């Protein structure tokens, strides 16, 4: 049996003005770079489609039982690689690629308004910025009430907070695909090291 930690990283398909979605390009770069010998990395492209997300995420969590799922999306407003601390349940009014949006305008009918990641994004951000990889990382608490936020909230709900969301700028504004891949690699590795610390703390408490 493999003792490798399983990590899923997803990017989105093209939508709107994003004929090339830098999130999926960055995830493919990360797949080339890998996350080291101890990690089994799975990557998936996610449709910009509320109903597809509803079907896809439960199957990913159930089948692979990952330690961490990191979703990556593009933001036309972003100029840094942005770590999202939380996902929101309500306010989904914008139509997806199939001209659909949920009638309830929310992810989970009885879910709380907001779910935080178990990861301290400020700490991840500081560590990556201190490592001086040539890409600036920042933190946000508003993933935008579209498919990014919807996917994040759903994943946080299914994974009991063991999920993360990273917004990346469009390609060349200012970073190349290689830059974004390296930034994702650094971010996910820091997230994994924090989860490892938390596990060690929990083990200590139960001994």
UniProtKB/TrEMBL annotation:
Gene Ontology terms describing biological process: proteolysis
EC number(s) reported in the record: 3.4.19.3
Molecular function GO terms recorded: pyroglutamyl-peptidase activity
Catalytic activity: Release of an N-terminal pyroglutamyl group from a polypeptide, the second amino acid generally not being Pro
Active site per the UniProt annotation: 148
Origin: domain of life: Eukaryota
A Pfam family it matches: Peptidase_C15
Top-level EC class as recorded in UniProt: hydrolase
Coiled coil: none
GO cellular component, one term: cytosol
Record's signal peptide: none
Listed name of the protein: Pyroglutamyl-peptidase I
């Amino acid at each position: 049996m493999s003792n490798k930690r399983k990590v899923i990283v997803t990017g989105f398909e093209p939508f709107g003005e994003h004929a090339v979605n830098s999130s999926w390009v960055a995830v493919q770069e990360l797949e080339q770079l890998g996350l080291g010998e101890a990690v089994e990395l799975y990557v998936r492209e996610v449709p910009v489609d509320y109903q597809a997300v509803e079907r896809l995420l439960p199957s990913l969590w159930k089948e692979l039982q990952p330690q961490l799922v990191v979703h990556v999306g593009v933001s036309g407003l972003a100029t840094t690689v942005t770590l999202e601390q939380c996902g929101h349940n309500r306010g989904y009014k914008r139509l997806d690629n199939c001209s659909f949006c949920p009638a309830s305008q929310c992810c989970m009918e009885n879910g709380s308004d907001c779910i935080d990641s178990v990861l301290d994004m400020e700490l991840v951000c500081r560590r990556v910025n201190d490592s001086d990889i040539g890409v600036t990382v920042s933190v946000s608490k508003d993933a935008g009430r579209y498919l990014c936020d919807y996917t994040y909230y759903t994943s946080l709900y299914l994974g009991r907070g063991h999920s993360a969301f990273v917004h990346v700028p469009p390609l060349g504004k200012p970073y190349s695909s290689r830059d974004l891949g390296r930034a994702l690699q650094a971010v996910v590795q820091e997230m994994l090291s924090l989860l490892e610390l938390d596990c060690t703390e929990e083990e200590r408490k139960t001994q």
